[in-house]
């Protein structure tokens, strides 16, 4: 837009109240901008500047930047420029590539300014008003070449968003229309900052005499001897004419790294450059006075730049636009700043105040300073190592917690299907020294895609029947803890532990083996939050409320019951040439062993087990199951096998001798219990004629015989447990029972209730009778128990 400021419009109320409220102040001018004032309606226009009678514009093309020159318009009825007088293409335009998932990079506009030699006839007010400046002839010739010096032509400097700093000789561009040549020869790249160019300026760094400073006028043309350019990320370029070692005038170029990102910058008097960041407004001094030379150092040639810059803070933040006046009447510098919130501020600075710079020091103080710095570096390095270790421990703990969460979710969501992490238990007999021991083997298998590392423990709890059934018992379960270390996907871990016999020489069956995965939160999280070997008080202070209240997380894996049917051994099934020695019974008393060796040859053993087997009739317990129910339950794995043989194989499925029983198609078998007593299993088919009015019900009777009442109870309990599981599974499939004689069932139920009441009476009588009368009570109690072990009912 081209506007005329000769007769600005005014917007003011003419009421008397407003005049009184302003106390006679002059009204603020309001300049309207009409659409007719537009002289270049180009949406691709990115930057422009004015020089004498020329309007210089920079346009963003589809692939390249384009600089265009127009005749300067005059405000009037037709403010449009007279015509284009020059055009040249700059480097290719590459839009910034965005990073997926991150905010788009900010859009930067190019920077334009005009530079004139000291002998140019361009008025100073035109240069200063458009952001231009005048360079000394030495620096001007070194930067732009002999052509620009001979033509006394202004030069247009252009800073592009990709970091290029290039120049175009204005008169050469104008004359290229009449004598066209290579357009690339008109453009010269001075430097590449490798970051968006924010500001281009120039300043006077050589100190002036005091008497010259007093005669300095603000409108006087200043010949700058240093060209500066700022990048967005804090890189600053300074170019100055200097003498080399051979006495030749060469351009001296230095790059400085200053705090960034840089929002704006301005050049002031006294060799000072101001630049703004989001957090501060800083000033640096490029004059030679900012880096005083020592007596032992050689003096630099004229135009030397300081080797380093020390920014001084002005404690003003978020300045987005900045302008510096060269000098005020009071002898200082005045800054005009616009903040990001729209506040316009003026700042007055004293040029005589000492700028911060590297202070000179003695050799002793330098050595002491170096020692202090090395000591500080050592302390920081030690602290960094502790912090790094703490961070590594916490990262490891977070990884372990993430794995634990994944494992927990996988186990809890598996439901009734196959579990990603399973633990199976099997039993076998082993001989340790002179005693047979029942061993349990637990196999932990990781079929998931996760790894069990630090903090995981396999807990195996062994609970005997005495602890489970006797509520008043003081015994406790035995728990084994096995650390799980580096159990990756597909790996297995096998653990073998003894189940019995115990210290009393007996094996209390059934035995329940429960396997559980335990994850220790205290071990993983507590160690990460409070490293024990750290000497840093910050790391040792761990608030107690951060540590987990619970010790850990328990994830049940399996529950396996070891009963009498799994512990039976069958020495008679082994071939004669491979038959193992007879299983040893429980540990015997040394005195009884001595008396056994002293008995006469051919005499019978006099132990309690042998006497019981010789003189007492074997105890019998039985259970009857519908043949139809058994066929439906065993049809999958026992097709073509007689029902009695299939039933015996099913009962001994978890026994090590099941393969021999299956190969010989046995329906009855005699084994040895853990205490050495014989246990006889007989499976036969029977017919139940009194239950169903439609006719006999085909059934299978499972009979257990043994001279040991404890062993027969344990074996009967194991058979009943398997039957309960089978009936529950078949009931879920919707099988129905036949019609039964209800009155007959009621009579059997009444008889059983009578027997149970008699058992309670007999047990109470045993507690009060003497030894002589208690024998008859015990005999009757045993008879009642035998009747209860032979029910007249059948599982349907």
Topology:
Elements: H1 16-22, E1 45-51, E2 54-60, E3 64-71, E4 84-92, E5 111-117, H2 124-129, E6 133-135, H3 137-151, E7 155-159, E8 164-169, H4 170-175, E9 187-192, E10 197-203, H5 210-214, E11 223-224, E12 226-231, E13 235-243, E14 249-257, E15 264-267, E16 272-276, E17 281-285, E18 312-313, E19 319-324, E20 333-339, E21 344-349, H6 363-412, E22 421-432, E23 435-446, E24 456-463, H7 465-469, E25 478-483, E26 492-500, E27 511-520, H8 521-529, H9 537-540, E28 552-562, H10 564-567, H11 590-598, H12 608-615, E29 619-626, H13 627-634, H14 643-651, H15 658-664, E30 668-672, E31 678-688, E32 697-706, H16 709-732, H17 742-766, H18 771-788
Parallel strand pairs: 5-6, 6-11
Antiparallel strand pairs: 1-2, 2-3, 3-4, 5-7, 7-8, 8-9, 10-12, 12-13, 13-14, 15-16, 16-17, 17-18, 19-20, 20-21, 22-23, 23-26, 24-25, 24-27, 27-28, 29-32, 30-31, 31-32
Helix pairs in contact: 6-8, 13-14, 17-18
């Amino acid at each position: 837009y081209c506007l005329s400021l000769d007769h600005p419009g005014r917007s003011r109320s003419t009421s008397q109240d407003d005049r009184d409220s302003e106390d006679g102040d002059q009204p603020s001018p309001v300049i309207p901008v009409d659409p007719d004032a537009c002289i270049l309606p180009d949406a691709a226009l990115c930057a422009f500047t004015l020089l004498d009678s020329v309007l210089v514009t920079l346009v963003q093309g589809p692939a390249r930047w384009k600089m265009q020159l127009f005749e300067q318009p005059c405000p009037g009825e037709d403010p449009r420029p007279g015509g284009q007088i020059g055009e040249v293409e700059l480097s290719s335009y590459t839009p910034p590539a965005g990073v997926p998932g991150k905010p788009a990079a900010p859009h930067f506009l190019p920077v334009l300014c005009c530079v004139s030699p000291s002998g140019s006839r361009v008025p100073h007010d035109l240069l200063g008003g458009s952001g231009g400046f005048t360079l000394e002839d030495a620096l001007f010739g070194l930067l732009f070449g002999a052509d620009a010096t001979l033509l006394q032509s202004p030069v247009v400097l252009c800073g592009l968003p990709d970091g290029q700093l290039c120049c175009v000789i204005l008169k050469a561009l104008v004359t290229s229309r009449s004598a066209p040549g290579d357009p690339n020869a008109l453009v010269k790249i001075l430097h590449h900052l490798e970051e968006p160019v924010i500001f281009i300026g120039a300043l006077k760094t050589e100190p002036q005499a005091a008497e010259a400073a007093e005669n300095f006028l603000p409108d006087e043309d200043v010949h700058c001897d240093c060209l500066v350019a700022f990048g967005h990320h804090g890189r600053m370029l300074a170019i100055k004419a200097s003498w080399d070692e051979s006495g030749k005038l060469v351009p001296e170029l230095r790059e400085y790294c200053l705090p960034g990102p840089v929002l704006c910058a301005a050049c002031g008097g006294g060799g000072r450059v101001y630049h703004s960041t989001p957090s501060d407004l800083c000033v640096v001094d490029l004059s030679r006075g900012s880096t005083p030379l020592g007596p032992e150092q050689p003096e630099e040639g004229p135009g030397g730049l300081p080797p380093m810059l020390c920014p001084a803070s002005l404690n003003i933040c978020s300045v987005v636009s900045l302008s510096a006046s060269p000098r005020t009447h009071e002898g200082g510098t005045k800054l005009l700043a616009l903040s990001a919130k729209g506040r316009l501020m003026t700042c007055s600075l004293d040029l005589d105040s000492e700028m911060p710079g590297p202070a000179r020091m003695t050799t002793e103080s330098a050595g002491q300073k170096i020692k202090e710095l090395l000591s500080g570096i050592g302390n920081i390095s030690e602290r960094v190592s502790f912090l790094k270790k703490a961070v590594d421990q916490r990262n490891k703990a977070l990884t372990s917690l993430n794995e634990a969460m994944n494992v927990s979710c996988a186990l809890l969501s598996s439901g009734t299907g196959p579990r990603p992490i399973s633990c199976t238990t099997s039993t076998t007999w082993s001989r340790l020294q002179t005693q047979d021991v029942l061993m349990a083997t637990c196999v932990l298998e990781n079929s998931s895609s996760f790894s069990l590392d630090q903090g995981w423990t396999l807990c195996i709890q062994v609970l005997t029947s005495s602890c489970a059934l006797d509520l008043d018992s003081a015994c406790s379960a035995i728990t084994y803890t096995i650390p799980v270390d580096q159990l990756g996907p597909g790996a297995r871990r096998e653990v073998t532990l003894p189940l019995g016999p115990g210290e009393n020489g007996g094996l209390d069956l059934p035995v329940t083996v429960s396997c559980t995965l335990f994850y220790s939160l205290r071990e993983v999280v507590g160690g990460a939050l409070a490293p024990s070997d750290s000497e840093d008080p910050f790391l040792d202070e761990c608030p107690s409320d951060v540590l987990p209240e619970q010790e850990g997380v328990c994830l049940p894996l399996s529950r396996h019951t070891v009963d009498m049917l799994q512990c039976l051994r069958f020495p008679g099934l082994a071939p004669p040439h491979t038959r193992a020695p007879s299983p040893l019974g429980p540990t015997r008393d040394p005195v009884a062993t001595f008396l056994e060796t002293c008995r006469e040859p051919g005499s019978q053993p006099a132990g309690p087990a042998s006497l019981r087997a010789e003189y007492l009739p074997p105890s019998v317990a039985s259970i009857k199951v519908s043949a139809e129910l058994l066929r439906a339950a065993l049809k999958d794995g026992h097709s073509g096998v007689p029902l009695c043989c299939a039933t015996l194989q099913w009962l001994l499925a978890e026994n090590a001798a099941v393969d021999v029983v299956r190969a010989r198609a046995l329906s009855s078998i005699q084994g040895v219990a853990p205490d050495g007593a014989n246990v006889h299993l007989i499976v036969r088919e029977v017919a139940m004629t009194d239950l169903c009015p439609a006719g006999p019900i085909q059934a299978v009777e499972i009979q257990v015989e043994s001279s040991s009442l404890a062993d027969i109870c344990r074996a009967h309990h194991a058979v009943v447990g398997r039957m309960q599981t089978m009936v529950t599974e078949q009931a879920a499939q919707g099988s129905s029972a036949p019609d039964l004689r209800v009155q007959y069932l009621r009579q059997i139920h009444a008889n059983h209730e009578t027997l149970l009441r008699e058992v309670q009476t007999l047990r109470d009588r045993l507690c009060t009778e003497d030894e002589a009368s208690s024998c008859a009570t015990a005999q009757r109690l045993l008879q009642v128990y035998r009747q209860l072990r032979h029910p007249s009912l059948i599982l349907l």
